[in-house]
Amino acid sequence: MIGRSLVSKASLLPAARSSIAKRSIATSRVALSDKLFVHRDTTDNNANVKFEFTAENMERANEIMAKYPPQYKKGAIMPLLDLGQRQLGWTSLPVMNAIAKMVEVPPMRVYEVATFYTMYNREPVGKYFLQLCTTTPCQLCGSTEILKTIESNLGIKVGETTKDGKFTLVEVECAGACVNAPVLAVNDDYYEDLTPETTNKVLESLKTGAPLPAGPQTGRLTCEPKGGLTTLTTEPTGPGFGIRSDL
């Protein structure tokens, strides 16, 4: 009886499998990263290339490390990587190895940090590193047109560097200046409230080596309302305002 029961149940399996096989399964497209953090030796990025901080930056590095107890020197990895990148222009393997030696950790600990945070450029970038925010608020305010303008003006696509090595263009997530969208970061400076016309002006000024002042390109002060102030339009009251004179 047991054998017959098993045979009977088994005879049902092909039909069940057949019905399951007919089900349509929807899958989303695999997201592809524009960076693959796998090191490949090049002539200027290998373990035999030497990197040393300049005397000025070494003094700064010691100041940074002095902020951490001796047993927690590894806490200085991020600011030291930033310092090394500012000196070299990007975060190379020699930079990471030098910092690992300074904070006395295995090099892998520094590699993990440098490849996790997008602020560290693992490849050389141009003199002007253009980071265009294309997240929803900036996109709603026209970042798509700004992207097309930059690509047209410089003759490059996202992720590319101009032949003269001056400009590198990348897309980034929220730049944290949504009220001034669309926003383009040029190295450490934000150019905000951009239009295709003002974007071209910013790029042309960078080409001449005389960058326009950073900030909103519409004339407004920081992030004040575009339509003008609606509050705090009069002089603030002085001490004692609204207090009885006998108090």
Automatic annotation (TrEMBL):
One of its GO terms (cellular component) is mitochondrial inner membrane. Keywords: 2Fe-2S, Iron, Iron-sulfur, Metal-binding, NAD, Translocase. Transmembrane segments: none annotated. InterPro entries: NuoE-like, NuoE_dom, NuoE_N, Thioredoxin-like_sf. Residues 226-247 are annotated as: Disordered. It holds the Pfam family 2Fe-2S_thioredx. Its cofactor is [2Fe-2S] cluster. It comes from the Eukaryota. GO terms for molecular function: 2 iron, 2 sulfur cluster binding; metal ion binding; NADH dehydrogenase (ubiquinone) activity; oxidoreductase activity. Residues 227-238 have a biased composition (Low complexity). GO terms for biological process: mitochondrial electron transport, NADH to ubiquinone. Binds 1 [2Fe-2S] cluster. [2Fe-2S] cluster binds at residues 133, 138, 174, 178. Belongs to the complex I 24 kDa subunit family. This is NADH dehydrogenase subunit E. The lineage of its organism: Eukaryota, Fungi, Fungi incertae sedis, Mucoromycota, Mortierellomycotina.
